[in-house]
């Protein structure tokens, strides 16, 4: 590991066009899972000026069967989409929750995919697709996330809360942040640069109003980032292009699944390439990424490593994972192979099959829309939400090692 280096991560707000698409897709996942816990959903969303389009494949008892929608189902879908955009806060000429055009192009799941995934006879449920998934944890922050991404998320979460509460009425929904930290070893020691671009009300790009907006952003940074990391040498780039009045889907088209690094670890970990939002938990792109985060977090929380990356791999239609790989980046207190064996020996994980993952984490529930902005990881587990952030394997891992 390098002893001294700069590392940067970015985040985007709930009003970013791609995140609008993610939140809509996960609103559809939650809607169908609330009707049928065994529903199959793969929902993609396109957003652009005054338009939202859904596309994908579904199967849901009582809602969509034999190629037919149940009475009122399509209206309920449209209502969920408009409610999502309204909650985010879009009431602009170029994108308004009440008046955008809406297209629903969801259709039946392929029978050839279903036959590989569904359990039958002595065959357990198979993975919904092939692929590799990664989980990661680091002791940079109390939530065991890379500090660069953690602070990038927190800046935008704070700004969104102030926008919703009217504490910062000049803010509009679309925004991006970026944080650069200097590390010594694996420890962040200084914040060298902050980038924040935020959509704003008319006139906040010049004069006293521009100064007010920039002072506000700096005050948010001061609340979020520990004082010992900030200094007079920290460089700020706030709305560096100038005006940012046109934003969201009106300024740039949005698509589900284009912010996979923002959703995960900010570039601090490898990524298998699969997006999360819009997918039910039979899709291992989602559920296996959650279980690997859960395992990596528990490894670090148990004091077995300062950093941990875990990879898992699947074949479509096959229940058992093809491989499990642990890398503690030279920070482990025991061998990585021993951690692998300890994980494989935890019976509650159900052999890390898709069914075992969903059962252990309780994933067949409408818990996904809150994941679709400000990251899927490093969040507080509450009730049924974010169960992969629990550290309830710590004692079992310690006992096994």
Keywords:
401 residues, alpha+beta, four-stranded mixed sheet, 32% helix, flat
| Proportion of helical residues | 25-40%
Uncertain runs are none
Order of helices and strands: EHEEEEHEEEHEHEEHEHEHHEEHHH
Radius of gyration: 22 Å
Mean pLDDT: 95
Q: First CA to last CA: what distance? A: 25 Å
Q: How would you summarize the topology of this molecule?
A:
Layout: E1 4-12, H1 17-35, E2 40-48, E3 51-59, E4 64-65, E5 68-69, H2 73-88, E6 91-92, E7 95-96, E8 101-108, H3 111-117, E9 131-138, H4 147-165, E10 171-184, E11 187-200, H5 207-224, E12 235-238, H6 248-251, E13 254-255, H7 260-263, H8 284-301, E14 307-314, E15 323-327, H9 336-344, H10 354-361, H11 394-400
Parallel strand pairs: 3-8, 11-12
Antiparallel strand pairs: 1-10, 2-3, 2-13, 4-5, 6-7, 9-14, 10-11, 14-15
Helix pairs in contact: 1-2, 4-5, 8-10
Provide structural commentary.
The structure is a single chain. The protein has 401 residues and is an alpha+beta fold. It is 32% helix and 24% strand. It is built from 11 helices and 15 strands. The strands form 5 sheets. It has a 4-stranded mixed sheet with strand order 1-10-11-12, with helices on one face. A 4-stranded mixed sheet has the order 8-3-2-13. It is flat. The mean pLDDT is 95.
Short summary:
The protein has about 400 residues and is an alpha+beta fold.
């Amino acid at each position: 590991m390098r002893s001294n280096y700069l590392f940067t991560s970015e985040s985007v707000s709930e009003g970013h066009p791609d995140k609008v698409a993610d939140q809509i897709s996960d609103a559809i996942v939650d809607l169908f899972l609330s009707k049928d816990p065994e529903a199959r959903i793969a929902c993609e969303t396109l957003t652009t000026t005054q338009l939202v389009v859904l596309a994908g494949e579904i199967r849901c008892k009582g809602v969509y069967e034999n190629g037919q929608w149940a009475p009122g189902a399509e209206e309920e879908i449209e209502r969920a989409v408009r409610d999502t955009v309204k909650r985010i806060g879009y009431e602009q000429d170029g994108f308004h929750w009440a008046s955008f055009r809406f297209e629903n192009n969801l259709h039946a799941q392929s029978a050839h995919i279903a036959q590989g995934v569904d359990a039958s006879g002595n065959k357990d449920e198979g993975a919904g697709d092939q692929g590799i998934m990664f989980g990661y944890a680091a002791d940079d922050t109390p939530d065991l996330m890379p500090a660069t991404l953690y602070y990038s998320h927190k800046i935008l979460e704070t700004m969104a809360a102030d926008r919703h509460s009217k504490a910062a009425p000049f803010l509009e929904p679309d925004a991006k942040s970026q944080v650069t930290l200097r590390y010594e070893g694996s420890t962040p020691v200084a914040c060298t640069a902050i980038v924040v671009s935020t959509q704003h009300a008319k006139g906040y790009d010049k004069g006293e109003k521009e100064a007010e907006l920039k002072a506000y952003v700096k005050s948010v940074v001061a609340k979020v980032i520990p004082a010992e990391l900030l200094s007079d040498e920290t460089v700020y780039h706030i709305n560096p292009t100038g005006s940012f009045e046109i934003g969201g889907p009106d300024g740039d088209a949005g698509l589900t699944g284009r912010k996979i690094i923002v959703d995960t670890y900010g570039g601090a970990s490898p990524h298998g390439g699969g997006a999360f939002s819009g997918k039910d938990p039979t899709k291992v792109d989602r559920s296996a990424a959650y279980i690997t985060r859960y395992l990596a977090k528990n490894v670090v929380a148990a004091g077995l490593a300062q950093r941990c990356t875990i990879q898992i791999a699947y074949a479509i239609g096959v229940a058992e994972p093809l491989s499990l790989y642990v890398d503690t980046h030279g920070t482990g207190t025991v061998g990585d192979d021993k951690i692998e064996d300890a994980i494989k020996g935890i019976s509650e994980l159900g052999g890390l099959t898709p069914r075992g993952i969903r059962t252990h984490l309780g994933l067949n529930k409408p818990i996904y829309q809150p994941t679709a902005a400000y990251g899927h990881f490093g969040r507080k587990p509450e009730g049924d939400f974010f169960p992969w952030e629990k550290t309830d394997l710590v004692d079992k891992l310690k006992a096994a090692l």
